[in-house]
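Appendix B, record 7
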Amino acid sequence: MLSVSVALKSLADSLSDDFPASPGTRIFEVSFPLNDGFDPLCWLNAQPVWPQFWWQQRSGCQEIAALGTAVSFLSIADAERFLSRHAADDIRICGLNSFDFRQTTFFLPRLEWRREGGVATLRVNLSSETSLKDDAHAARAFLATLTPHGVCNALALELISEIHRPGEAGWRGLIEQATRAIADGEFDKVVLARATDLTFATPPDAGALMAASRRVNLHCYHFFMAFDAQQAFFGSSPERLWRRRGLELETEALAGTVASHPDPVQAQHFADWLMHDDKNQRENRLVVDDICERLQEYVDALDILPAETVSLRKVQHLRRVIQAKLKEADDERCLKQLQPTAAVAGLPRNKAFDFIDAFEPFTREWYAGSAGYLSRQQSEFCVMLRSAKVSGNTLRLYAGAGIVAGSQAESEWQEIENKAAGLRSLLFSE
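Structure tokens (predicted):
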């Protein structure tokens, strides 16, 4: 690819200057013409260095491809402290939060490709607490390892085994246990999930699967994180956790589900049913009320937009958008107040979380956590749903369903089957 070759050479030339043997942060950026079919995801997938992070906003207007680490952070709070020392620079820090916050990974990329609409740039970040001269040397060596080529070739996969956790019988027992707890007043809602482990004869190519999901799962956030050559987490999620532009915040309640259909008339029939179904409307309102309650102390204004249906490839959802004006720009607070939402955990949050922790037969890890970026000017994170984890030869698919009074195990099982199909159908013929 000519564009990436030229941009990488230009950045490498920028690093040929003398740098002081003292602490500091420097950014070098070049414009990146979008005229030769460059695919940032497939380019990342071809590189021999990690971490690799790719994220695309669901409207398609923003895209980030990040490679390597200049600075790593243990939390959003650590990242915000770093950003506060560089207020004049448009620095973005990328990363993931796990569902239970037991895992968090944030980093200032060594190399970042960024697209806003039809304008793209490539930048290299230097940052050192000891010597910028040494960090520039490390950055030059890093750039020298990169290839201009991209790879996103899906391999034919031979399935060896498939295990649901829980299986259908276990799921039925879990739903019965949850609905009894709801009837006893322990909580109002709990979101329960299933993990499906698919083991293949050869390792799945996570980048190629992400590219395949991007092609067919439209109107979704796409997120991809390769930690090393064997470990990756990726998916295509319809749900925004939050978007902040200055003090303007937008979040949403995405809860309530029905199947989609290739026939537009039938799909509209399902959507009309969803808009008037008591169980699904009740589930959505619980999420709305919880979000508003959590935000109330930290905003000057708050507005709930009318309910709408969101149509995806396999399912349709109820969504209510919530807009607010923050008293101060604090992404750590946004994260703590909004994750996990009632749409992925339940209500009350702590009691639902305890039930999940005690009775789900697997650990969620990154599933239902969040992926995105933050900067001084803006931040945006999606909820990591419709996702999969690659670990060697095994790919784990995740899907969940909101359980409230009146939930039936059979219909909830079908719901998670529909949700998992968004990625599963990429592995097997439908």
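Remarks on this record: The chain has eleven helices and 20 strands. The mean pLDDT is 94.
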